Amino acid sequence: MTTLEYGHVTRRFGNVVALDDFSLTVPGGKLVTLLGPSGCGKTTALRIAAGFDIPDGGRLVMGGHVVSHVPPRRRNAGMVFQEYSLFPHMTVAENVGFGLRIRKVSPATRSRQVSEMLELVQIGHLAGRYPHQLSGGQQQRVALARALVFEPSVLLLDEPLSALDAQVRTEVRDVIRGLQFRLGTTTLFVTHDQEEAISVSDLVCVMKDGRPHQVDTPENVYMRPATEFVARFVGETIEVPTPRGRCLVRPENLVLVAPEEARAMPGVTFVGHATSVRFNGSTCTVTVAVPVEDIVLNVKVLPHQATLTRVHDEVGVVATSLTYAL
Amino acid sequence: MRRRFPVWEWAVIGLCTVFFAAPMLAMARFALQKVPVALLGRETLFSRWTFSGFTNTLADESFLPALWLSTRLGILTVAAVLVLMVPTVVWLNLTANNWRPVVEVASTLPYIVPPIALVVGVSALFRDVAPWMVTTDYGMIPLYSMLCLPFTFRTLDAGARATDMRTLTDAGRNLGAGPVVILMKVIIPGMRTSITAAAFLGFAVVMGEYAIASLLLRRTLPAYMVEAQGREPQGSMAVALALLVLTSLIFILLNRSDRTSGRRDTIGLPA
Ligand SMILES: Nc1ncnc2c1ncn2[C@@H]1O[C@H](COP(=O)(O)OP(=O)(O)OP(=O)(O)O)[C@@H](O)[C@H]1O
Ligand SMILES: [Mg+2]
Asked: Which pLDDT score, from 0 to 100, does residue B271 have?
């Protein structure tokens, strides 16, 4: 399995530094996501891996070879683009077979591989359609099949789900993850959606301004963020004062208790008044104003617990764990 | 709520139809009725329709050579223009977007430079270096190619812009295709409709060009028709009418096939 490695890659556009001494290793067979806000250099990193862009400094190593200057067509990397990128004059089957045709695979083998791959992305019945006859989710499945059918050594996905609506998004996301797991293709997945990153990856690389801030498992990135930026970007946080200085906590780590219990407990506790109780479906949010500290805490509780709390009630809040000390 | 009858829409459509159809009908009467022009009125509407205009022209020994010359020039000009302009447009859209204004201005030059200036300039310049440009029929191809530019460039460029050429090219490169394969298998098929339209427009320009042909003393179809107008006014009008009808039909068919194939790119006529 091919390892993809960025070694101190720098890329500038004029005076914008899109990638700044960027180093990252995507271990063979793993799915790594690049997560970061818009303009942080995710697409640039991916285009360098695909060969569409050449680093100004540093190097790119793929399967043990330095490939920084190898043209895209010799890299054997499959890519799914952010925009719809199917060839409009070709059917689904012709689109998927394109890479095999270039590689001079015989027509019989080609059509077998194409239909197998279309089955894997669950659109075998659409082989004869043209791209404009497909929905967005179907188009991205075709694009995924097209990128995987020639057994690329790495798979590059540039926000393949960003143009899809919520439900289709999760469906296609599960298809991607299932397929990646099954084929064991080294994959770099770009997204700016932290939930997506957390749910599909083996490793998440959180980046900002062209630099990686933390490369870690989804659990660690969420529960043990390395920098303040990571803590705030991945998931919700609330800033609270503690005896050891200000800290960031996740709303689910705040627990509602009786006020006297909070006063009696050691650790980080608060007493205040409930100012609102909101129902969000599976959970409720109780907003607590703490006058002494002059803060407002949004506490997530289960609905049955929320029914015990009324607006203006005095309540206690306990922080069970602190996510990041500022 | 009942939809109001779209009076204005239909009025405009009607006006346009009259605007285009009335001269054609008048042409048809002039060309195809064996009635003295002074007597072409309401009462002679149905009398003495005949195709003798056509048959006389077809029998004229200089007609077919002129038609054949114009056809050859048309085809070769279209070929030359496409070979030149398709790669140019692709290049403009892929890597040289900042060159677009330059090419746009250059492509409108034929609107600005009058044919006489073009011919005189070209003959003065090329008479010694490339005498064939002034003395042979095919020497007109470069001039005609220039003349087609405003139409073909705009049509091709509109077609190219309707597709996301950058992403499609990247997808092709990523799948392992080289530049030639990408051009032939990805980009050109994607621009098919606009290439057809550009070819047709170029052909129509050549089939109708008179000024340059007459200045260079070439016997093209328009030159023949102008000359024949004196001898055989009805015959030459009949040919003109046939060309007009044929052109319109091809145009309608082009638009049709474009719509029925359900593709997203447009025929991209110049504005
Ligand atoms: N071809 C280019 N020319 C000039 N600047 C560019 C070019 N490509 C990217 N940039 C700049 O480099 C920076 C990083 O861009 P990049 O496209 O990699 O961001 P991104 O993380 O993919 O953002 P998004 O989430 O919005 O897609 C941005 O500031 C962008 O403006
Ligand atoms: Mg991007």
From this structure: 34
Question: B51: pLDDT confidence band, cut at 50, 70 and 90?
Answer: confident
ipTM field: 0.82
* Cα atoms in the 13 Å half-sphere on the side-chain side of A286: 29
Average pLDDT over residues B70-89: 93
Minimal CA separation from B140 to chain A, in Å: 36
User: What local confidence, expressed as pLDDT, does residue B258 receive?
Assistant: 61
B111-152: pLDDT as tens digits = 888 888 888 888 888 888 888 877 788 888 988 998 899 889
With a pLDDT cut of 70, the percent of chain B lying above it is 93
Residue A124 Cα to ligand 1 middle (Å): 36
> Which one of A53, A74, A89, A94 would you mutate to disrupt binding with B, by most B Cβ within 10 Å of its Cβ?
A89
Q: CATH 1.10.3720.10 in chain B: give the residue spans.
A: 54-267
Nearest CA in chain A to B171: A85
Q: Which residue of B has its CA nearest to A152?
A: B175
Q: Which amino acid is at B164?
A: D
Residue A218 phi/psi, 5-degree rounding, is -55, -40
Give the CATH class of B54-267: mainly alpha
pLDDT of residue A164: 85
Find the A17 Cα to ligand 1 centroid distance in Å: 9
User: Chain B partners of A130 at a C-beta cutoff of 8 Å?
Assistant: 262
Q: Which of B175, B190, B262 is the closest to A98 by Cβ?
A: B175
The three-state DSSP-derived secondary structure of chain A is: CCCEEEEEEEEEECCEEEEEEEEEEECCCCEEEEECCCCCCHHHHHHHHHCCCCCCEEEEEECCEECCCCCHHHCCEEEECCCCCCCCCCCHHHHHHHHHHHCCCCHHHHHHHHHHHHHHCCCHHHCCCCHHHCCHHHHHHHHHHHHHCCCCCEEEEECCCCCCCHHHHHHHHHHHHHHHHHHCCEEEEEECCHHHHHHHCCEEEEEECCEEEEEECHHHHHHCCCCHHHHHHCCCCEEEEECCEEEEECHHHEEEECHHHHHHCCCCEEEEEEEEEEECCCCEEEEEEECCCCEEEEEEECHHHHCCCCCCCEEEEEECCCCEEC
Percentage of the residues of chain B whose pLDDT score is greater than 90 = 26
Would you give the end-to-end CA distance of chain B in angstroms? 37
